Amino acid sequence: MSNPTHNENTSSIEAVNRCVNKRISTRIAQVPLASFIFNASGPRCTEEDELNLLGASASAAIMTKSCTLEPREGNAEPRYQALPLGSIQSMGLHNLGYKAYLEMLPRLKQAISPQADKPIVVSVSGFSLADNLTMVKAFQASCADLIEVNFSCPNIEGKAQVGYDFEQTERALEQLCQLGSKPIGLKLPPYFDFSHFITMANIIKKFPVSFITCINSVGNTLVIDPETESAIIKPKGGFGGLCGDYIKPIGLANVRAFSQLLPSSIDIIGVGGIKTGTDAFEYLLAGASAVQVATCFEKEGIECFDRIAKELDSIMAAKQYSSIAAAKGKLKMI
Ligand code: SIN
Fold first, then answer.
1. Helical H segments across the chain, by residue range
2. Mutate to test the pocket of ligand 1, among 75, 79, 93, 239 (most ligand atoms within 8 A of CB)
3. Would you say residue 88 lies in a domain?
4. 155 CB under 6 A from ligand 1?
5. Is residue 275 situated within a structural domain?
């Protein structure tokens, strides 16, 4: 189940080669990516067969589901509902536990074509600083290429999002950034006030954080079905993370604000409502070095990466941008 066959490996090379295009290749923390687009730590990246499928796809990286110390079944069902312009979810960090991903990484790495610049990004989401220290230390000694620490899951009952607690974030970074030389990034919640952008940027600047990922879902939203007079997901009394088109303007604003506040050495990965090349291009103009796709990947499946990459490439060609660097952050003001 977990190891791709020869045919799958061949299609992996083809899929990745289709995307090896100088115009949309990029780097995160100096790690090369063949395209601007990969999966978010979200849907379809928990199991080994799902991660192998990403390895064989045009996703520019293999991003794992956020892991915890112990395996988790996640929240009660129904915990995901598609909406006309996105989704609401409260998955509850269903994952195999960090040891399973540690053990899986060499197999995933081996299955990736040597010609493909396809890094593996592991996502960790501990319930305490001690959990995160244990997991980051272990992944620092693994063959993962990048480590994303998730400070923004809104879906665990009784656990606040670390990214909204600035003191806790600073205390955590003091220790998490000392554990090894692999690039560390932070997945942040959406911020809605300039004082918060500035406070978080000033904390990040104190530490060797290599990248940030903006934004996680907009947490604790409520969708009601008037027919049944009920919330449409079960966990947390119906409160869940809003995803998809609804949140793209918030994602763009967060990428833009942080790109203005942080040094250009800290890469920003945009997430939130990316389902077309145009969406990806808007994030590029706002200052993103790459984008991650979640809801669209859930709805459309693995083909979305190739499609969005081709659409972005066409837009850039038509606008005569020859590289990601040429368009990055070039948002015009009126
Ligand atoms: C979840 O598993 O609940 C979503 C993960 C996240 O929001 O970080």
1. 6-19, 48-55, 98-111, 129-140, 166-176, 194-205, 248-261, 277-286, 295-300, 304-318, 324-327
2. 93
3. no
4. yes
5. yes
